[in-house]
Design goal:
The complex is a heterodimer of chains A (64) and B (143). With 64 residues, chain A is mostly helical. Chain A contains five helices and two strands; from the N terminus they run βαααααβ. A two-stranded antiparallel ribbon of chain A has the order 1-2. Chain B is globular. Classes of the chains: A mainly alpha (64), B mainly alpha (143). Chains A and B meet through α2 and α3 of A and α3 of B.
């Protein structure tokens, strides 16, 4: 899984800490999410997408 | 705001509970070691001390990290840390079944346990150690 979290976070000038606090998770979770090493719940995916003003399917790219 | 404060209060209680339980486990480990030393079983005593030190180290790490995170406004647990905990717990449980089988099998032949409490102590210590190792593993791994 690839994500555009880092790119969008930079666009809105948000640090990993800012995003973590905004969606109510630990900073490591954002680190793992950015690296595509964590499959989030639908709720968290929705919250991150909302915080980055985008849609879930534009934020997470699944590869077969 | 009230909901946030209540959540913070709950997390503080959880952190204190972790510390109290860890201290109780360490105290039990120390008593177990003392009993072994008094009976002249150096290996059993040293094993108990090593396990107690490992648990103490883990408890200190959890407390310092939790306290720092709470001050900085992060949650003590989130969905990823809960998932890591669940995976580590379930794997430690499965593997400890084999550990118990091995202890049971070897206790009649190779290993001579002093009594049932020594065998139980080693099994419980082994389970704690397995949990710690799986927790470290899943904390680094993709989940």
């Amino acid at each position: 899984m690839k994500t555009r979290i880092k790119e969008l976070r930079a666009r809105y000038n948000l640090t990993q800490e800012d995003l973590a606090k905004k969606v109510g998770v630990r900073r490591e979770t954002i680190v793992f999410l950015e690296k595509g090493k964590y499959n989030p719940s639908l709720q968290l995916a929705h919250d991150v997408a909302k915080a980055l003003k985008t849609k879930i399917d534009e934020l997470f790219i699944f590869e077969k | 705001m009230n909901k946030k404060n209540s959540k913070k209060g709950k997390e503080k209680i959880r952190l204190i509970a972790i510390v109290i339980i860890s201290l109780l486990v360490i105290a039990t480990g120390a008593l177990f070691s003392l009993k072994s030393f008094m009976k002249g079983e150096i290996a059993g005593g040293v094993t108990g001390i090593i396990i107690a030190i490992l648990i103490l180290g883990f408890a200190i790490f959890v407390f310092i990290r939790g306290n720092r995170d709470m001050k900085e406004g992060y949650p003590l647990r989130d969905e990823r840390s809960k998932r890591v905990m669940e995976k580590a717990t379930s794997m430690a449980f499965y593997v400890s079944l084999y550990l118990l089988l091995v202890i049971g099998f070897l206790s009649d032949s190779i290993i001579k346990f002093r009594d049932i409490s020594q065998a139980t102590g080693i099994a419980v210590g082994g389970m704690a150690l397995l949990f710690l190792l799986f927790w470290i593993y899943y904390n680094k791994k993709e989940i």
